[in-house]
Amino acid sequence: MADFERSLREAPPHALVDVVRDRLAAWYGATDVALLLADYGLSVLQPVGAADARAGALPLYTSAAGRAFGSQEARAEPARDGVVPHLLPVTVRGERLGVLAVRLPAEHSTEAVARQLAHVAEVLGHEVLVAERDTDLYQLARRASRLTLAAEMQWQILSGRAFAQPEYEIGAQLEPAYAVHGDNFDWSSDFAGLTVAITDGMSEGVEASLLTTLAVNALRNARRAGVDIADQAALADQAVWARYRGSLYVSTLLMSFDLESGRAYAVDAGSPQLWRRRGRSVERVPLDAQFPLGMFEESDYRVQEIDLLPGDRLLVVSDGVYQAVSPQSEPYAPKALVRGIQATSLLPAASVPGALLRELASYRLTETLDDAMVVCLDWHGRPGAGAVAE
Prior knowledge:
Layout: H1 2-10, H2 16-28, E1 32-38, E2 44-47, E3 58-59, H3 64-71, E4 75-76, E5 83-92, E6 95-105, H4 111-131, H5 137-141, H6 149-157, E7 162-165, E8 168-175, E9 183-189, E10 193-201, H7 205-224, H8 229-244, E11 250-258, E12 264-269, E13 273-278, E14 281-284, E15 304-306, E16 313-317, H9 319-322, H10 335-343, H11 352-363, E17 372-379
Antiparallel strand pairs: 1-2, 1-6, 2-3, 4-5, 5-6, 7-8, 8-17, 9-10, 10-11, 11-12, 12-15, 13-14, 13-16, 16-17
């Protein structure tokens, strides 16, 4: 296996699936190997390297491969004509990339081989993330349709759509995935904690993406300078003000989580709403509203503590979610939003944003140009760091 991993690292970035295909054919007589990646809208799985990826697309919610993706469990389908299809989730630190589909002769389809295939899928996922720096191959497989230029810019500055550590799990999604322009989410983990930034820039199209790109990179620059979230907000506020002089601004929610103490903090600089599910109850977390980034020159930002216990689920929703209305002009928040949060309580954090946004799409009056974003964080905490939510 060490030789296989070295072969993957040394392979051209566009040839990873070829290396896996050749090795599995030599080891186990695999008759077919395909890497299927989830598209930006989380609706289909599409094959890497296919002449027409859309022609080979599989639905994410009704196919066997989609079920393996959703459950994050390897599956072996019933044998047909002496061949057993194996479906292995390809996931890196909680980020669900897709599924590795392998067809094996029945005589080689054993539990030991299935474990080896799962390891191959894990190694392949890590190498895909590295290879994406140098080839468009994997990006192309994620596109069920063409991205707008604004969406292209936004996806390039996003964190992954999910991330997991022992203390927490986080997932996020944007819609319309192929035409998003102003909403963005970003996170960074280190030995001490987690920092999360949710931003919503004004305007539309490329102008909104340019504004958000400036704000996100200003926040990252400040975070990497080692300052707290209040100063991160202040420095990003200055950057946006210097460019737009208050004509455009960015609604932002910054949060930081201390892994040792289990305490959480927030700076609310705009419209994203924070909700908490604790046990069977769901409620909006009250935060002190402060000025959006770039609205006024040299705004002062204050940090406040969030009431957080292990077992809590935090959800951040943009105005495209909570301001949506039904055909009967009923707002999505709070009643329908609370129902949606309750209905998804058994799903993992990585699956919740997509599920809520699909429910929202069936609820609202019409298709809207406004972005809709959901970020979900399940807080586990460290043992002994605090009480557990009932």
